[in-house]
Amino acid sequence: MTLSVPSDAVFLAELAPVAERLYERHLEATKEWFPHELVPYSQARDFEPGETWDESEVPMDPAVRSSLLVNLLTEDNLPFYFQVITRMFGADDVWGEWNRRWTAEEGRHSIVIRDYLTTTRSLDPWALERDRMHQVQAGFHGETLPNAANGFAYVALQELATRISHWNTGDRLADPKGKEVMSRVAKDENHHYLFYRDLVAAALEVDPSMTVEAIAHQVDVFEMPGTGIAGFKAHARWPSPTQGSTTSSSTTTRSWCPACCATGSWRRSRG
Ligand SMILES: [Fe+2]
Ligand SMILES: [Fe+2]
Protein backbone atom coordinates (compact mmCIF):
# COMPACT_ATOMS: atom_id res chain seq x y z
CA MET A 1 0.00 0.00 0.00
CA THR A 2 1.30 3.43 -0.89
CA LEU A 3 0.63 6.19 1.57
CA SER A 4 -0.45 9.41 -0.04
CA VAL A 5 1.61 12.49 0.76
CA PRO A 6 -0.54 15.58 1.21
CA SER A 7 0.17 18.47 -1.11
CA ASP A 8 1.40 21.75 0.29
CA ALA A 9 -2.08 23.16 -0.29
CA VAL A 10 -3.68 20.53 1.97
CA PHE A 11 -0.88 20.80 4.52
CA LEU A 12 -1.15 24.59 4.67
CA ALA A 13 -4.95 24.47 4.88
CA GLU A 14 -4.75 22.12 7.86
CA LEU A 15 -2.25 24.37 9.59
CA ALA A 16 -4.07 27.64 8.83
CA PRO A 17 -6.22 27.66 12.03
CA VAL A 18 -3.07 27.16 14.14
CA ALA A 19 -1.30 29.93 12.21
CA GLU A 20 -4.25 32.25 12.90
CA ARG A 21 -4.01 31.58 16.65
CA LEU A 22 -0.26 32.06 16.64
CA TYR A 23 -0.59 35.26 14.64
CA GLU A 24 -3.11 36.63 17.16
CA ARG A 25 -0.76 35.64 20.00
CA HIS A 26 2.07 37.41 18.22
CA LEU A 27 0.08 40.63 17.84
CA GLU A 28 -0.82 40.57 21.54
CA ALA A 29 2.74 39.84 22.68
CA THR A 30 4.65 42.34 20.59
CA LYS A 31 5.01 45.97 21.57
CA GLU A 32 5.36 48.92 19.23
CA TRP A 33 8.85 50.40 19.10
CA PHE A 34 10.59 53.08 17.07
CA PRO A 35 14.08 52.87 15.55
CA HIS A 36 14.66 56.63 15.82
CA GLU A 37 14.30 56.48 19.61
CA LEU A 38 17.32 54.16 19.87
CA VAL A 39 19.76 55.97 17.56
CA PRO A 40 22.23 58.47 19.16
CA TYR A 41 21.90 61.10 16.43
CA SER A 42 23.71 63.68 18.58
CA GLN A 43 26.94 61.74 17.98
CA ALA A 44 26.72 62.20 14.20
CA ARG A 45 28.54 64.60 11.92
CA ASP A 46 28.56 65.01 8.14
CA PHE A 47 30.89 63.02 5.93
CA GLU A 48 32.85 65.71 4.13
CA PRO A 49 33.73 65.41 0.39
CA GLY A 50 36.87 63.31 0.02
CA GLU A 51 36.74 62.06 3.58
CA THR A 52 37.43 58.37 4.19
CA TRP A 53 36.30 56.20 7.04
CA ASP A 54 38.78 55.88 9.91
CA GLU A 55 38.30 52.73 11.98
CA SER A 56 40.47 54.12 14.78
CA GLU A 57 37.69 56.62 15.57
CA VAL A 58 35.59 53.76 16.93
CA PRO A 59 37.89 51.06 18.35
CA MET A 60 36.21 47.67 18.32
CA ASP A 61 37.15 44.01 18.30
CA PRO A 62 37.42 43.09 14.60
CA ALA A 63 35.22 40.02 15.17
CA VAL A 64 32.46 42.21 16.59
CA ARG A 65 32.76 44.67 13.70
CA SER A 66 32.56 41.76 11.29
CA SER A 67 29.43 40.48 13.06
CA LEU A 68 27.74 43.86 12.79
CA LEU A 69 28.39 43.96 9.05
CA VAL A 70 27.13 40.41 8.45
CA ASN A 71 24.08 40.87 10.67
CA LEU A 72 23.07 44.08 8.91
CA LEU A 73 23.61 42.73 5.39
CA THR A 74 21.58 39.66 6.31
CA GLU A 75 18.71 41.94 7.35
CA ASP A 76 19.12 43.98 4.16
CA ASN A 77 18.08 41.09 1.95
CA LEU A 78 14.46 41.33 3.08
CA PRO A 79 12.96 41.71 -0.44
CA PHE A 80 14.31 38.30 -1.35
CA TYR A 81 13.01 36.66 1.85
CA PHE A 82 9.55 38.12 1.23
CA GLN A 83 9.57 36.65 -2.24
CA VAL A 84 10.64 33.19 -1.03
CA ILE A 85 8.11 33.07 1.81
CA THR A 86 5.31 34.19 -0.49
CA ARG A 87 6.23 31.43 -2.91
CA MET A 88 6.34 28.78 -0.17
CA PHE A 89 3.31 29.69 1.93
CA GLY A 90 1.20 31.84 -0.41
CA ALA A 91 -0.04 35.42 -0.33
CA ASP A 92 -3.61 34.79 0.83
CA ASP A 93 -5.34 34.36 4.16
CA VAL A 94 -3.28 34.13 7.33
CA TRP A 95 -0.11 33.22 5.48
CA GLY A 96 -0.07 36.47 3.54
CA GLU A 97 -1.10 38.49 6.60
CA TRP A 98 1.68 36.98 8.67
CA ASN A 99 4.26 37.47 5.94
CA ARG A 100 3.40 41.14 5.49
CA ARG A 101 3.44 41.81 9.25
CA TRP A 102 6.72 39.89 9.61
CA THR A 103 8.21 41.89 6.73
CA ALA A 104 7.18 45.18 8.33
CA GLU A 105 8.84 44.14 11.58
CA GLU A 106 11.98 42.90 9.85
CA GLY A 107 12.27 46.19 7.97
CA ARG A 108 12.90 47.97 11.26
CA HIS A 109 15.97 45.85 11.89
CA SER A 110 18.07 47.13 9.03
CA ILE A 111 16.77 50.67 9.65
CA VAL A 112 17.85 50.79 13.29
CA ILE A 113 21.12 48.90 12.88
CA ARG A 114 22.22 50.94 9.84
CA ASP A 115 21.28 54.25 11.45
CA TYR A 116 23.18 53.31 14.60
CA LEU A 117 26.29 52.17 12.72
CA THR A 118 26.33 55.18 10.40
CA THR A 119 25.70 57.68 13.16
CA THR A 120 28.46 56.27 15.34
CA ARG A 121 30.80 55.63 12.35
CA SER A 122 31.25 52.04 13.48
CA LEU A 123 31.46 50.70 9.90
CA ASP A 124 32.85 52.00 6.62
CA PRO A 125 29.68 53.37 4.97
CA TRP A 126 31.10 53.11 1.44
CA ALA A 127 32.05 49.45 1.83
CA LEU A 128 28.74 48.77 3.55
CA GLU A 129 26.71 50.21 0.68
CA ARG A 130 28.69 48.31 -1.96
CA ASP A 131 28.22 45.09 0.01
CA ARG A 132 24.48 45.78 0.31
CA MET A 133 24.17 46.25 -3.44
CA HIS A 134 25.99 42.97 -4.01
CA GLN A 135 23.94 41.07 -1.44
CA VAL A 136 20.50 42.22 -2.58
CA GLN A 137 21.29 41.67 -6.25
CA ALA A 138 22.62 38.16 -5.55
CA GLY A 139 19.51 37.04 -3.64
CA PHE A 140 19.91 33.91 -1.58
CA HIS A 141 20.12 30.54 -3.26
CA GLY A 142 21.85 28.43 -0.66
CA GLU A 143 18.75 26.84 0.83
CA THR A 144 16.99 23.66 -0.14
CA LEU A 145 13.29 23.99 0.50
CA PRO A 146 11.39 21.32 -1.42
CA ASN A 147 8.09 21.85 0.39
CA ALA A 148 6.30 23.93 3.02
CA ALA A 149 7.34 21.61 5.87
CA ASN A 150 10.98 22.25 5.01
CA GLY A 151 10.20 25.95 4.80
CA PHE A 152 8.74 26.01 8.32
CA ALA A 153 11.65 23.99 9.73
CA TYR A 154 14.16 26.29 8.05
CA VAL A 155 12.65 29.57 9.23
CA ALA A 156 12.28 28.25 12.79
CA LEU A 157 16.00 27.45 12.86
CA GLN A 158 16.92 30.68 11.11
CA GLU A 159 14.94 32.96 13.44
CA LEU A 160 16.51 31.27 16.47
CA ALA A 161 20.00 31.59 15.00
CA THR A 162 19.36 35.23 14.12
CA ARG A 163 18.17 35.97 17.64
CA ILE A 164 21.31 34.47 19.12
CA SER A 165 23.52 36.28 16.62
CA HIS A 166 22.03 39.73 17.28
CA TRP A 167 21.98 39.23 21.03
CA ASN A 168 25.56 38.04 21.24
CA THR A 169 26.84 40.76 18.94
CA GLY A 170 25.18 43.42 21.08
CA ASP A 171 26.50 41.79 24.21
CA ARG A 172 30.07 42.29 22.91
CA LEU A 173 29.59 45.99 22.15
CA ALA A 174 31.08 48.43 24.63
CA ASP A 175 28.55 51.14 23.76
CA PRO A 176 25.32 50.77 25.78
CA LYS A 177 23.39 52.39 22.91
CA GLY A 178 24.63 49.66 20.60
CA LYS A 179 23.71 46.98 23.10
CA GLU A 180 20.21 48.42 23.30
CA VAL A 181 19.79 48.41 19.50
CA MET A 182 20.91 44.80 19.11
CA SER A 183 18.94 43.46 22.08
CA ARG A 184 15.79 45.21 20.79
CA VAL A 185 16.20 43.50 17.41
CA ALA A 186 16.92 40.17 19.12
CA LYS A 187 13.60 40.43 20.97
CA ASP A 188 11.78 40.75 17.65
CA GLU A 189 13.60 37.71 16.32
CA ASN A 190 12.53 35.78 19.39
CA HIS A 191 8.86 36.49 18.65
CA HIS A 192 9.37 35.29 15.07
CA TYR A 193 11.07 32.18 16.35
CA LEU A 194 8.19 31.41 18.74
CA PHE A 195 5.68 31.69 15.89
CA TYR A 196 7.55 29.24 13.69
CA ARG A 197 8.58 26.93 16.51
CA ASP A 198 4.98 26.37 17.50
CA LEU A 199 3.94 26.06 13.87
CA VAL A 200 6.46 23.26 13.43
CA ALA A 201 5.06 21.61 16.58
CA ALA A 202 1.58 21.73 15.00
CA ALA A 203 2.97 20.41 11.73
CA LEU A 204 4.26 17.38 13.63
CA GLU A 205 0.65 16.62 14.54
CA VAL A 206 -0.67 17.15 11.00
CA ASP A 207 1.97 15.08 9.23
CA PRO A 208 4.56 13.59 11.59
CA SER A 209 6.62 11.73 9.00
CA MET A 210 6.95 14.58 6.54
CA THR A 211 7.71 17.10 9.29
CA VAL A 212 10.33 14.95 11.03
CA GLU A 213 12.03 14.39 7.68
CA ALA A 214 11.91 18.12 7.00
CA ILE A 215 13.44 18.98 10.39
CA ALA A 216 16.19 16.39 9.96
CA HIS A 217 16.98 17.66 6.47
CA GLN A 218 17.09 21.31 7.49
CA VAL A 219 19.27 20.63 10.52
CA ASP A 220 21.60 18.75 8.20
CA VAL A 221 21.90 21.39 5.47
CA PHE A 222 21.24 24.55 7.47
CA GLU A 223 22.92 27.75 6.34
CA MET A 224 22.10 31.30 7.28
CA PRO A 225 20.91 33.54 4.42
CA GLY A 226 24.02 35.66 4.94
CA THR A 227 26.24 33.07 3.32
CA GLY A 228 25.81 34.99 0.03
CA ILE A 229 27.52 38.07 1.47
CA ALA A 230 30.75 39.05 -0.27
CA GLY A 231 33.63 37.58 1.72
CA PHE A 232 31.33 35.61 4.04
CA LYS A 233 33.88 32.84 4.63
CA ALA A 234 36.45 35.37 5.75
CA HIS A 235 33.90 36.91 8.12
CA ALA A 236 33.04 33.46 9.48
CA ARG A 237 36.69 32.77 10.30
CA TRP A 238 37.01 35.55 12.85
CA PRO A 239 37.90 34.04 16.24
CA SER A 240 35.43 34.46 19.05
CA PRO A 241 36.76 37.08 21.48
CA THR A 242 35.72 34.97 24.44
CA GLN A 243 36.49 31.46 23.28
CA GLY A 244 39.67 32.12 21.34
CA SER A 245 38.63 29.49 18.82
CA THR A 246 37.52 29.71 15.23
CA THR A 247 33.79 30.08 14.98
CA SER A 248 31.29 31.99 12.94
CA SER A 249 31.62 35.64 13.82
CA SER A 250 27.98 36.38 13.61
CA THR A 251 25.30 34.15 12.38
CA THR A 252 25.40 30.61 13.55
CA THR A 253 24.25 28.87 16.68
CA ARG A 254 27.83 27.73 17.21
CA SER A 255 28.72 31.24 18.29
CA TRP A 256 28.07 32.71 21.71
CA CYS A 257 24.78 31.85 23.32
CA PRO A 258 23.04 34.10 25.87
CA ALA A 259 22.37 32.69 29.29
CA CYS A 260 18.68 33.42 28.86
CA CYS A 261 18.67 30.91 26.01
CA ALA A 262 19.26 28.11 28.47
CA THR A 263 16.94 29.38 31.17
CA GLY A 264 13.98 29.80 28.85
CA SER A 265 13.49 33.42 29.84
CA TRP A 266 13.10 34.31 26.15
CA ARG A 267 9.92 32.28 26.07
CA ARG A 268 8.45 34.46 28.77
CA SER A 269 9.69 37.71 27.30
CA ARG A 270 7.20 40.20 26.05
CA GLY A 271 7.88 43.23 23.92
FE1 LIG B 1 15.57 40.59 11.50
FE1 LIG C 1 13.05 37.61 12.32
Characterization of the model:
By secondary structure, the protein is an all-alpha fold. It has a single domain (59-268), classed as Ribonucleotide Reductase, subunit A (Orthogonal Bundle). Helices cover 64% and strands 0% of the residues. The chain is built from eleven helices and no strands. Helix 3 packs antiparallel against helix 4, helix 4 packs antiparallel against helix 7 and helix 7 packs antiparallel against helix 8 (208-221). 39% of the residues are buried. The chain binds fe (ii) ion (2 copies). One fe (ii) ion binds next to helix 6 and helix 7. One fe (ii) ion is lined by residues 106, 159, 162, 189, 192.
Write the layout of secondary structure elements.
Blueprint: H1 8-29, H2 62-76, H3 78-89, H4 93-119, H5 125-138, H6 148-171, H7 176-206, H8 208-221, H9 232-236, H10 259-263, H11 265-268
Helix pairs in contact: 1-4, 1-7, 2-4, 2-5, 2-6, 3-4, 4-7, 6-7, 6-8, 7-8
Bound molecules: fe (ii) ion (2 copies).
CATH architecture: Orthogonal Bundle
CATH topology: Ribonucleotide Reductase, subunit A
* CATH homologous group name: Ribonucleotide Reductase, subunit A
Note the main sheet. Answer: none
- Give the low-confidence spans: 1-5, 244-270
What fraction strand?
Answer: under 5%
Q: Helix segment count? A: 11
Task: Give the integer mean of the pLDDT values.
Answer: 87
Structural class by sheet pairing and helices: mainly alpha
> Helicity level, as a percent range?
55-70%
What is the end-to-end distance? Answer: 50 Å
Q: Tell me the series of helices and strands, N- to C-terminal.
A: HHHHHHHHHHH
CATH class: Mainly Alpha
Number of domains: 1
Tell me, briefly, the overall form: elongated
